[in-house]
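User: For my dataset I need records formatted as: sequence, then structure tokens, nothing else. Please produce one.
Assistant:
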Amino acid sequence: MLARIWTGFFLAAFLSAMFQWLVNDQSQIFSQIVTSTFDMARLSAEIALGLIGILALWLGFFRIAEKAGLINVLARLLAPLFKRLMPQVPEGHPALGSVTMNLAANFLGLDNAATPMGLKAMRDLQTLNPDSDTASNAQILFLVLNTSSVTLLPVTIFLFRAQQGSADPTAVFIPILLATSASTITGLLAVAWFQRLKIFDAVILTYFAGFAILMALFVTYLGSLSATLLSEKSSLFGNLILFGVIILFLTAGIFKRINTYDAFIEGAKEGFDVAVKLIPFLVGMLVAIGVLRASGVLDLALVGVEWTFTLMGFNTDFVQALPTALMKPLSGSGARAMMLETMATHGVDSFPAMVSSVIQGSTETTFYVLAVYFGSVGIKHVRHAITCGLLADLAGIVTAITVSYWFFYN
């Protein structure tokens, strides 16, 4: 499937470029497309090289945690849940610990820590994969949970809204939480259907009920804070937890009489190899996305969507926010640029800008996450991962638009 989609991006870009040239007389379109291939190739290398330091840092600390037994402890605590969600992963396997830490980092919005933790989790799961070229069920579930993961503190969106002069930068907080929850639930149910998981098992429901209660209490607390305090507290909580994890790892290593520095160096050495292996996968995916965007395919899709909804008699005020939605599965930076462009054009507190902000916080970037996570372990056959990831994206985007009408439309 990935090969067909990847090839389809180039073919769609070519057809769109021909249309732009022959019908709209835009002879510069091919120059823009070729330029985008160079720009995206360069960006791919910059992303991979930029990850080297972060990967070395966190893989080093992870090696300390592994030798101290912390990852195994976390894995045992979650064994009943993952025994049902990932039946191929043995009870107490280190992969369960690294998976949990990645999801927790995403939940708290700790982007710098989440990616290295996610790559570590994917490598741990790869040790259990009987076919190294093909994604296992556990790897697909983990990837989809990452592309749709609930982010409780979308601080960057708050900051962008504040920078653009919003009267209430955190007004999108609850809508974003509802949208990202919908995407996560949809992604989980889609994977459960493909993999025949018994998602309504009593143990699974108990874990999720406990999680929902904790999240409700946390949201209630955050909702009681002013915009300024919320920004301050979210930054404090995130950084405190992140540094607290480092101190926990080091303390456990000292308690177990581990040479923490040697263990750190041993793990950090892996960071370079992982980052370099990502470059071919990033180049392939980001160049395809770049030509798709430069060719005007997304603009043509936007016109088609607006025409369709107008024909059906629906309100089309949300259409101005759709560039963010169309870009979101393809490029995180592209979607962010679309969101900022919508804010600048229509006003930061306008309805299209509010919808765009909620969409931006609803999901992660499916194709980028797929390229990075699967690319780090050399997986070429992704099976149902794209289908489930895009279903989660669709659910998040549709929910984002719906709740935006509920919260913001006058």
